[in-house]
Amino acid sequence: MSPIATAALAKTAPPAPPRRRARSGPPTRRLMAPATLFLLAWMIVPLAMTLYYSVRHYNLMMPELRNFVGATNYKLLLTDPTFWHSLVNTLVLVMACLAITVALGLGLALLFNRTFPGRGVARTLAISPFFVMPVVTGLIWKNMLFHPVYGLLAWLARELGLAPFDWLAQQPMLSIVIMIAWEWTPFALLILLTGLQSLPEDQIEAARLDGAGRWQEFRHIVVPHLGQVLYVVVMLESIFFLTSFAEIYATTSGGPGTATTNLPYYIYQNAFFQYDIGLSSAAAVGAVVLANVFSFFLIRFVAGNLNAGSAR
Amino acid sequence: MAIVELKNVVKNYGGRKAQGPNAVDDFNLTTRDGEFVVLVGPSGCGKTTTMRMIAGLEDLSAGSIRIGGRDVSDVAPRDRDIAMVFQSYALYPHMTVFGNMAFALRLKKLPQAEIEKRVREAARMLDIEHLLERKPRALSGGQRQRVALGRAIVRQPQVFLMDEPLSNLDAKLRVETRAQIIKLHRSLGVTTFYVTHDQVEAMTMGQRIVVMLDGNVQQIATPHELYAQPVNTFVAGFIGTPSMNFLPATVGDDARSLQGEGYRFRAGDARAAGLAGKAGATVLVGVRPEHLKWCGSGDAQAANHLAGKVDVVEPLGSTTMVQVDVGGQRITAQLDSAIAVEMGQPIALTCAADVLHLFDAQTGQALGLPAQA
Fold this sequence. Notes:
- The complex is a heterodimer of chains A (312) and B (373).
- Chain A is mainly α.
- Chain A is 71% helix and 2% strand.
- Chain A has one domain: MetI-like (MetI-like fold, Orthogonal Bundle), CATH 1.10.3720.10.
- In chain A, helix 4 runs antiparallel to helix 11 (214-242) and helix 9 (172-197) packs across helix 11 (214-242).
- The longest helix of chain A is centred in the last third of the chain and has 35 residues, at 277-311.
- Chain A starts with a helix and ends with a helix.
- By secondary structure, chain B is of the alpha+beta class.
- Chain B has two domains: 4-237, 3-Layer(aba) Sandwich (Rossmann fold); 251-360, CATH 2.40.50.140.
- Chain B contains nine helices and 20 strands.
- Chain B has helices at 47-55, 97-107, 112-126, 141-153, 171-188, 199-205, 223-228, 233-238, 269-272, and strands spanning 4-11, 24-30, 36-40, 62-67, 70-71, 82-85, 159-163, 191-196, 208-213, 216-221, 245-251, 257-260, 263-266, 282-287, 293-294, 305-315, 319-326, 329-336, 346-350, 357-360.
- In chain B, strand 4 and strand 5 (70-71) form a beta hairpin.
- In chain B, helix 2 (97-107) crosses helix 3 (112-126) and helix 3 (112-126) crosses helix 4 (141-153).
């Protein structure tokens, strides 16, 4: 066939019917299936198993005794003073770390948002604690900073003529809070700094022309702009703080006594020291409930504050 | 309402050691009370920098600025009593329209009733009363623009600054808003600086226009003066659409007649003085497209005469834009649409003597302008 004839045929031939168009859109479900299955295997299965174990008698030391016991594990849990203590510890830890990291992170973000020589290097250094692994963080603080004999802080105290202070023994919770805040302030800094950098310069200029001073500029323009970002920081950090474990494991092991036993550590102790899988599963379910309650109130609180702040 | 004086204002971004060209060089201007001054020029000419220096958002490298007799060169923006409309509007996204407009008044701690009154009044003037409870993101571009204007108006400042406030609007809305801003200015009578790169906006809005190029003021004049007596080829080409035609011509022995390949001119009485002693030299003749007329074959003896070949014809309805090749140079003529012209046909054009502009071929400065007052 000559090229001309082919061209003519191509022109006269009716357009091929769009075969796929008949169906509505791409095969969404099939494309999403791998992610859904992964999520199922990763999250739902362990959760279901935890729920299952929590209503069974399941102690590795007594392998023959494995039966359904109903709410017994939960009753044991709620009457265990250590559980309540660990619950309080968890809340103290989370609230203290949140307050410190957000306040410090915001302050540092405001400073690092200004231009000064060596800003790039300074920013990288400021963010670096976040890249240190939690266990390493714990070991560094325990052996190199807090240690009453070899620690930097003890050396400083001696140089100043003071008695060295055994941080982890005398102020265990404060020490843990300092470590975790040290690790997570860079995270808040990083996120808040990107938030600050997305604030259009002309809004600040408009506010300045409108008569706003430094504080009013911060209060009425910067903070409302950071609203969403602050929300993200508080949400993510509270999830991580609720599950803090490695720092405690590597330093105080929940002690002295139960002074730094938080809920994750309590679960760990019950599962891997007492070998009571049933009880620790019940505690784990409690932790899930706590996380949900906590985030519910936190979201309400943060969102309410932001709305009130911007309406005024 | 105030007189704004800029004296020898210089801006250099080189930091403490001034280096490179100045972004704004030796800017001098004294406004009248309540005047509408437009700063116009191509991008990078320093017009926005000048405005930001008036606002206090940029420091002066040299010179001084006085507002209402007070030297504000080192005064913070918040204490200058100036309101600015930004190109992007810069509305506060988390506040309602009311909150945006009331922000400055609240910072001033005015009584609530007064704030309410002023905001309502401004909203009524701008026809945005029904939008007061909305957030900026729920508004159209034109509405946002009016809120930005409203935020400036409620302040009742001494000076308004507007930085290309219309550039983000579509063409139709731009014309409407232009008229609205002019009306607002006439009723409020506040001294206003307006920055634009659009010469049509400048011509229609400005009582006085400052034409800038590369940080230098080219000419400060009323719209009519700019059009009739541009001081150099840049201003002549920048003001007016389509822009002025420039043709090199040799001055005749009588220091009056001008000759080039395919065209001849005879300078009008007003401009002829500029040609004194230039016999034999080359000058640039400027003539605006709208001043060129079709001339029948009978006018071949006309003092001003151009002969060429039609290159492109662009009918616009009321007029027809014709590009003509005259001795290898492309010129534009705006002809009556009743005249039928076709591509490729020969054409002869003429113009009146008093509409010719003359410029020095080297410096581009206008020749034979009446002495500036």
